[in-house]
């Protein structure tokens, strides 16, 4: 009988899979970038069949905020000369900016070439006229208690915006309807979704994730333990 | 007894083995469903309660590990050790079966052995990457940028394996009788002669020698 020539393939396969799987914690990122021409075709195919598209939706509370156009306001206040509250129509009537940029999440996934439409912060700030003491903007989400902030200089970078359109249609509920902050140079947790208030402040407060140990200046590839 | 000899039953899996299987299967399904709700935007919107789903996902994983330890402690450990040894060993027929699908097989065929190995390794890798995802959110020093990617890949491959497993166990007429073995423990001897002749031989030898 053949039992004498039995070989321990089971444990070899097991150990091989474990070695491959654990070491992939080191090489999975580079490998997926090398394979991205293949996998992006696959995920595009999948994206047409399934609602994947590379995004994943992170929320911190029990339910996703629901946008109601009649009652929604964007309050802009704090250290400003003319505090005001914009309606959705007011927001959309402001000078429109468009851009295509990549989105990076601190947990390791990215979405390339997202088409955003929205308003530059320069145009929003011109409406309220910040006082000289104002050094930063605190962004408050309808999703309590999520907030985060950007230094004024960061908010005024050329490809930073308050977006109300994504990929050709109004921002959907999972993506932060009706408006979210977009700052491609920084990880996604800086891009506050379901925005309802911008408060001009003299010092950057600690944001939601920053209170849990994440960096305030969340530069992609240069923060949160990543190095260039 | 009135049972005809060709309708004789062979005990294929002990209660302990079946318990391991069903704990694993149940946990996989709950983890897969809750994980998809965390992963797919449209499901995330429909369900919308991310903290609850996260809790379900994490506590199911903890429950899975605790249940497996409990089964090992309280169950028939000898049958588990015997099965593990069986899964480890690939004899000449097993190796031939992998190439041609046409060599006589024991209680577990070579494909079933490989499936068991992959399932066990994937479970551990899911647990390790899942731990980093969970703990890295609390302590950023444990945040590994690739953990999410590996967790995703494991999910895609597991899903394909699961669909194949389901097909063979529930749909494919030639093999689906095997489901009886993992639910009630026994299979028809007649079926076993077709699919696992070396096992039937062993059982008959034991019968005559005892």
Structural class determined from secondary elements of chain A: alpha+beta
Taking the sheet with the most strands of chain B, its summary is: 2 strands, antiparallel
Task: Compute the separation of the termini of chain A in Å.
Answer: 60 Å
Task: Tell me the total number of β-strands of chain B.
Answer: 2
Largest sheet descriptor of chain A: 5 strands, mixed
Shape by Cα distribution of chain A: elongated
Q: Give the ordered list of helices and strands of chain A.
A: HHEEHEEHEEHEEEE
Proportion of helical residues of chain B:
over 70%
What can you see in these coordinates?
The complex is a heterodimer of chains A (228) and B (210). Chain A is of the alpha+beta class and 228 residues long. Chain A has two domains: 9-48, no CATH class; 58-212, Sulfite Oxidase, Chain A, domain 2 (Alpha-Beta Complex). Chain A contains five helices and ten strands; from the N terminus they run H-H-E-E-H-E-E-H-E-E-H-E-E-E-E. The longest helix of chain A has 26 residues, at 9-34. Chain A is elongated. With 210 residues, chain B is mostly helical. Chain B has a domain at 13-88. A two-stranded antiparallel ribbon of chain B has the order 1-2. The model of chain B has no long low-confidence stretch (mean pLDDT 92). The chains are: A alpha+beta (228), B mainly alpha (210). The interface between A and B is large, with 50 and 52 residues.
């Amino acid at each position: 009988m053949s039992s004498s020539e039995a070989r321990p393939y089971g444990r070899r396969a097991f150990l091989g899979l474990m070695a491959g799987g654990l070491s992939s914690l080191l090489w999975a990122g580079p490998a997926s970038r090398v394979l991205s021409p293949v996998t992006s075709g696959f995920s595009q195919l999948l994206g047409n069949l399934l609602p994947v598209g590379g995004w994943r939706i992170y929320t911190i509370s029990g339910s996703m905020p629901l946008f109601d156009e009649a009652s929604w306001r964007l309050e802009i206040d704090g250290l400003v000369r003319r505090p005001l509250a914009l309606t959705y129509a007011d927001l959309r009537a402001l000078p429109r900016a468009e851009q295509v940029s990549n989105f990076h999440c601190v947990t390791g996934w990215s979405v390339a070439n997202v088409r955003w439409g929205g308003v530059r912060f320069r145009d929003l700030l011109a409406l309220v006229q910040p006082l000289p003491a104002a050094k930063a903007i605190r962004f408050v989400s309808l999703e309590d208690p999520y907030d985060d902030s950007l230094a004024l200089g960061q908010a005024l970078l050329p490809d930073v915006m308050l977006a109300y359109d994504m990929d050709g249609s109004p921002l959907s509920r999972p993506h932060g309807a009706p408006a979210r902050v977009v700052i491609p140079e920084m990880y996604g947790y800086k891009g506050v979704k379901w925005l309802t208030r911008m408060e001009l402040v003299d010092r950057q407060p600690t944001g939601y994730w920053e209170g849990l140990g994440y960096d305030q200046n969340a530069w992609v590839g240069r923060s949160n333990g990543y190095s260039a | 007894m009135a049972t005809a000899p060709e309708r004789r039953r062979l005990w294929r899996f002990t209660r302990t083995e079946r318990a391991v299987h069903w704990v694993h299967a149940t946990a996989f399904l709950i983890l897969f469903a809750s994980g998809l709700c965390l992963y797919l935007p449209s499901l995330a919107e429909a369900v919308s309660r991310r903290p609850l789903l996260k809790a379900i996902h994490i506590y199911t994983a903890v429950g899975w590990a605790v249940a497996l330890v409990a089964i090992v402690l309280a169950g028939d450990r000898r049958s588990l050790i015997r099965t593990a040894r069986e899964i480890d060993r690939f004899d000449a027929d097993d190796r031939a079966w992998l190439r041609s699908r046409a060599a006589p097989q024991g209680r577990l065929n070579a494909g079933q052995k490989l499936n068991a190995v992959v399932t066990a390794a994937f479970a551990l890798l899911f647990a390790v990457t899942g731990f980093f995802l969970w703990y890295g959110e609390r302590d950023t020093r444990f945040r590994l940028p690739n953990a999410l990617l590996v967790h995703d890949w494991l999910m895609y491959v597991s899903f394909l394996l699961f669909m194949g497993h389901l097909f063979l166990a529930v749909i494919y007429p030639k093999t689906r009788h095997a489901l009886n073995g993992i639910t009630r423990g026994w299979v028809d001897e007649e079926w076993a002669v077709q699919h696992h002749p070396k096992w039937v031989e062993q059982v008959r030898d034991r019968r005559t020698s005892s």
